[in-house]
Amino acid sequence: MPVPIREAFVSACAEPPLTPAVTRNILKHLPAKAKSLVAASLSASADDAGPKPFTCSIINAKSGRCSEDCAFCAQSRHHDTDAPVYPLLPADAIFERASFLAEKNITRMGIVTSGVGPSRADFDKLCEVAAKIRGNLPIQLCASLGVLDEDKARSLKQAGFASYHHNLETARSFYPRICASHSYDVRYETVCRAKAAGLRVCSGGLFGLGESWEQRAEFSETLQELNVDSIPVNFLMPIAGTPLQNRKPLRPMEGLAILALLRLMHPGRDIVLCGGRGATLGEWDRLALFGMANGIMLGDYLTARGNPFDRDLRVLRDMEETHA
Questions:
Q1: Is 0.90 surpassed by the pTM of this model?
Q2: Spatial distance between the Cα atoms of 224 and 19, rounded to a whole number of angstroms
Q3: Given pLDDT bands bounded at 50, 70 and 90, which one contains residue 46?
Q4: d(C-alpha 315, C-alpha 173), whole Å
Q5: Distance between CA 65 and CA 76 in Å, rounded?
Q6: Computed from CA positions of residues 176, 181, 186, 191, in that sequence, does the dihedral angle turn out positive or negative?
């Protein structure tokens, strides 16, 4: 008598990370058996403390008019959107945001700027404010400043940034469908330079662009190859004025299955619930935090509203009590 798919998944996934052969076998049953994959991930992590839980939040320090043509992005100058446009925020505004997050006991703050990369003057200002924050506040800093060269990577490390965020976004095979203005290799090499400088690397992507399950696994394998430290998981929130404005958000079970696959392929890495989790997961984000994601981004995203801070902090308190 054949073993039921759910039991087969649980057995095959009992000792992550998944082997390529197991991954390929699982893909044959998706999306039909997405629930079984989620069950396997929960089972595999049930007796394992896993990576330490943490929180993060971002500040959109420079917004809009990006020269690149990423199909999903509200900040691209190629698209007609309502995204805000402003130059680099004053240092006081960035420090004030860091103070607010530190008071909320947020673990990390990401400083994000639009565009390929900041000007030299803006870069130096960001390094100065980072040094001030690290010298006065109990919060870790992550930079998300676009393409990075070796000198800038070292300067960020010296200024007090602990992490560098740069998403690959999707699989190499799917990437030409979402961006033509710069290559996949440019993103890949930026991740490599950040790691070489001793920065903790936060690199993940965006799901729901139209990619296949095979491409999701391909993307995850690339992250394994790069040995990234943290994987931010975003779900597409279709934005009016972008080429993807008519795509529908993923359903909750598909979002959970994506998280399950990533957790089983990256058992020791941070997996972070980020943009679009409200639209795709809704209240199911609680389940994701049980055995798939160990990090959560709080507050607003770059150009879209996130969940209220108090709601997410309440969810986290509930989770802590459940695990106690």
A1: yes
A2: 12
A3: low
A4: 37
A5: 6
A6: negative
